[in-house]
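Anyone? Bumping this.
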Amino acid sequence: MGVSESGILWGGRGTEPEAVDRFYSVIPAGGIGSRLWPLSRAAAPKFLHDLTGSGQTLLRDTWNRLAPISGPHRIMVVTGRAHRAAVEEQLPELTDENVVLESEGKDSSAAIGLAAAILQKREPGVIIGSFAADHVINDNRRFRQSVVEAIAAADAGYIATIGITPTEPAIGFGYIKCGEPIDVPGAPDALAVEGFVEKPSLSTARKYVAAGTYLWNAGMFIARADRLLEQLGKTQPELLAGLLELADAWDTPRRGAVVDQVWPNLTKIAIDYSVAEPSAKEGLLAVIPGDFAWDDVGDFGSLAKLQSGGRKSDLAILGENARVLADSSSGIVVSETGRLISLIGVDNIVVVDTADALLVTTSEHAQRVKAVVDALKLSGRTDVL
Ligand SMILES: Nc1nc2c(ncn2[C@@H]2O[C@H](COP(=O)(O)OP(=O)(O)O[C@H]3O[C@H](CO)[C@@H](O)[C@H](O)[C@@H]3O)[C@@H](O)[C@H]2O)c(=O)[nH]1
């Protein structure tokens, strides 16, 4: 362990991190995971499911991963009002002051920015790390080491992120172009970021993967709260003003009235566009290459891969009461009903059986499930969403 000038404790490479002073974890739990429909629903989004077979929801797994870093009393969850009860059931340790309930999702800049503004007001100088509620990470110890390095980079003034070596030209991720090592005490693996491109086209993603100098952005941002807000204000001054107004009123009796007035007008924009891309252009983004397996389990193709340990020939079966008869078939079956499902001679199949909706597709087409959800929305069939 070491102590930086500002008093932050860190654990460098090879040391086991301890709860880090002045650090707050933030878990933005929004979105419905529409490419995992009909398993993931508005009422039960992806983060409320056990997709790994750990016996715990992804949200609980995320909490358990972060608690040793920030301490369990320093984890803030930002989620929709509708999910309050489910989140509290999953996280009984979560105190009221650490829950931010949104009347309406306003995208990640607002969710993470509001957490930063509230925490900065309560504790000036705090460092925050934002981590999705619904990702899968296979090695919590290595993950923690990367986060502790990212905290050291944040303490030095960077917006830090954790990058993952790409395995395919995915178009749903941000790409980080790695530069030279930067000299930050406590962050021996930190690299400068030469560029950040959110969700490039397939041809660009192919070039990035072939170049070998790009990492996937895993959606983890670690920064001093004041620095994050400063960066946000450069590109989104109105959004920042709204968030600061909310934060000012948050711990006062004025909260309800200010929320009613300010919330509807907050600009919807992803933090990747409002903070990450512009910070990279200014040389303020740093990346710690993550030395662990990471998956955002974005669609049933990824889920099948995750469940079968990457073996294409296997059939993964999810669901406590699943009853499946399979002959010469591979892919994934998710059963919520317990209805008997038989498969004969089908490869890379995806079958998701729920009480009111059945999905049949293939791993290759799994990304297109979002189009079904969009069509259902358009036709007003929100009862099955
Ligand atoms: N509370 C709350 N959280 C939100 C909201 N909108 C987004 N989030 C949360 O912010 C995170 C990122 O939002 P997504 O909308 O899921 O982003 P994405 O398209 O998957 O892309 C991001 O993640 C990728 C990795 O999974 C990155 O590769 C990419 O660059 C980007 O950061 C997720 O944890 C999501 O729950 C919101 O309105 N409210």
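Late reply, but here is one note on the structure posted above: The longest strand covers residues 214-224.
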